[in-house]
Amino acid sequence: MFSRFLPKQPSLRETLSNNALLVVFVTLMVVFSVSSRHFTSSTNVLLIFLRTAPLGVVVAGQTLVIITGGVDLSVGSVAGLTSIVAALLMSPDYSVVLPPVPAFLVALTLAGIIGWGQGYLISRRDLSPFIVTFSTLSLIKGLALVSSNAAPIPIDHSRFNWMWRVAPSPRPIPILLMLLVFVGLAYILSNTKLGRYSIAIGSNETVARMSGVNVQRYKTQVYVISSVLAGLAGLLLLTRLESGAYTIGENYPLISIAAVVIGGASLRGGTGSAWGSLLGVLLLTMVDTGLGVLNISPLWSTVVIGALILLAALADVERRRARDVVPAVRMERPVDHESYLAQMLINVHQTIKEHLACEHIRLYMVDRETGDVIEQGIDASDRTIINEQHHLARRVLRSHAPLWVDNLQDQETLIIEPIKPDLQSALAVPILNAGRAVGVLELQSPYASIFSAATAEQVTHLTRSIAGPLEDAWLLDSGWFLRHAREAYRHLWDEVYLGKCALTGWIYASENGTDMHPAERGRAVQQILLDAIEAVRERETGDRARDRRRYEVLHTTYVQNLSVEEITEQMSVSRRQYFYNLKDALEAVTHDIVHREVTDEEPVRA
Predict the structure, then answer these.
(1) What is the predicted pLDDT for the residue at 6?
(2) Residue 63, SS3?
(3) Most buried of 252, 388, 418, 550, CB within 10 angstroms?
(4) Phi, psi of 430 (to 5 degrees)
(5) Is 262 helix (H, G, I), strand (E, B) or coil?
(6) DSSP H helical segments within 68-156, as ranges?
(7) Which phi and psi (to 5°) does residue 422 adopt?
(8) φ, ψ (nearest 5 deg) of residue 154
């Protein structure tokens, strides 16, 4: 009896979908364990984790980079150069010989400087992360070749071999270090500004910037962390191989990206987790080791890993499609005395706030008959006609292209009224419906130089989904629909008039109706009008008595074409009450026509 008060439990399908990586990991482990009893031996498990440790450290840094929407292709070269620098500083043949700890710190500092340089170019010079890290990959590898004369730099054999001992008395320092790095990454993502802002930047950099996030600083920090962790991986490989070489970690860039994607991160940024990436890198190492235990050719390891990456990429696409769907902005009957357009404006404001974190918007609509540009207020009485030709809204309507202003204080050629005194920049985007400019959406921000071509594209994409409902709300609010619906009903039996009337022009706003003969269009519109009247009678919700009265007055006035005297006598009402009922009925049926609730096979509007 208490089951209805308990939270709904996820289905098995939902559980498997949400934990697909863990299911794949456990399944492969079971398969390899059944196929070979040596696979789950303590020694083999320890070896898998030891093989994973250097790559896992790189994957942790790559995860943070990919979450911000970037990529670091230089991690392998940084690991190689770091190992060479540390080996040279510890080599007795070098002019300056340092103990291991200072040598490691110098090498890691160099890695951090490389990361800072990459972050500076990406965040402050607006270069692509792919271009920057790909070029530094080659540059750093060249430096490693020159500094080592293309030869390994050996270190003392007995200095670090204890770190990689499997038996007896194993001391898995690399494994503990890898786990410590992932614990730190999980803490950063969950409990620090860097983690939260990295996710925000990857989800929508424009929104993050408009919310006051110092995008440049946090992006730079992310690339510094990635390079330092790549350097740390290079030092781990130095202790394992007992020499520094430019070839160390050269396959890490693509493998680390693959592990992060398999772990559930999106290459477009905004999603990712520390433990997902850890599972991803363990899965890759386990597959490679498992196939080797089964005496399967290493070539098949590449095939399997490639298939896993492809499946992870397909899953990422589906997740991104589900995340990027812009919710439809619907036009509904206004609440109380609120206008249609005011309610639509509230919905648009909420959508803009969710997607762009912009609080300040202004809407201009174009009068369909006069061409006037009208600034919309909270209610119908708060509207202003824009007559100035140099006004921002008029300029955008003439060009049919977005326009943004970096600093309102320095603007002299355009007329822009700040929504609030402290706002500094503005963006205006035309609202296009069926190829016509029906309005302008203006955004303003308290930050200067905040808008860009990318922001304009996002707002333009949003306006495409709201242009139709927004214009319909405006036409309903301004009385245009009511006037032309009344005229169409007055000529209900004149198919030629109906084929050319303004209401038909709205219904066939796209080019789909241009090939139809006016009389054919007129018959189609006539059927829409008749169906709308019938729909009023067949409503199953609302005030049934009022709907019957609406149907009766519409049917007698326009279908039967009776005179006012005949209708008032038949309905036993006064002339004043009749005209009041007729106006109420026309408003109701007009709303139904707009929402297409009256026909199963409606004409197509753009």
Answers:
(1) 38
(2) helix
(3) 252
(4) -70, 145
(5) helix
(6) 75-90, 100-123, 129-148
(7) -90, 10
(8) -75, 155
Using an 8 Å Cβ cutoff, are 509 and 517 in contact? no
| Tokens coding 391 | 């006004």
Return the sign of the alpha-carbon dihedral for residues 245, 298, 33, 308: positive
Contact 349, 361 (CB under 8 A): yes
Other Cβ atoms less than 10 A from the Cβ of 53: the count is 25
Tokens of 404: 């943004």
Give the gyration radius of the chain's Cα atoms. Answer: 34
- Reduced to 3 states (helix: H, G, I; strand: E, B; else coil), residue 574 is coil
Instruction: Give the three-class secondary structure for 445.
Output: strand
* 431 bridge partner residues: 439
Tokens of 398: 């003439």
- Please choose, from the candidates 133, 336, 359, the residue with its C-alpha nearest in 3D space to the C-alpha of residue 226: 133
**Cβ(273)–Cβ(18) below 8 Å:** no
Per residue in 333-376, pLDDT (tens digit) is: 554 445 778 888 888 888 888 778 788 999 999 998 889 999 98
Give the pLDDT of residue 332: 54
Q: Map residue 103 onto helix, strand or coil.
A: helix
- In three-state secondary structure terms, 518 is helix
* Tokens describing residue 523: 């018959």
Phi then psi for 332, rounded to 5 degrees?
Answer: -120, 165
Question: Is the pLDDT at 448 greater than 90, yes or no?
Answer: no
Is residue 208 pLDDT above 90, yes or no? no
Number of CB atoms found within 10 A of residue 510's CB: 14
Tell me: the pLDDT tens digits for 79-115? Answer: 999 999 999 999 888 878 899 999 999 999 999 999 9
Give the Cα separation of 255 and 263 in Å (integer). Answer: 12
Residue whose entry in the numeric block shows the structure tokens 């006035």: 557
**Bridge partners, residue 366, by sequence:** 373
Contacts of residue 542, defined as CB under 8 A and 6 or more positions apart, other chains included, come to: none
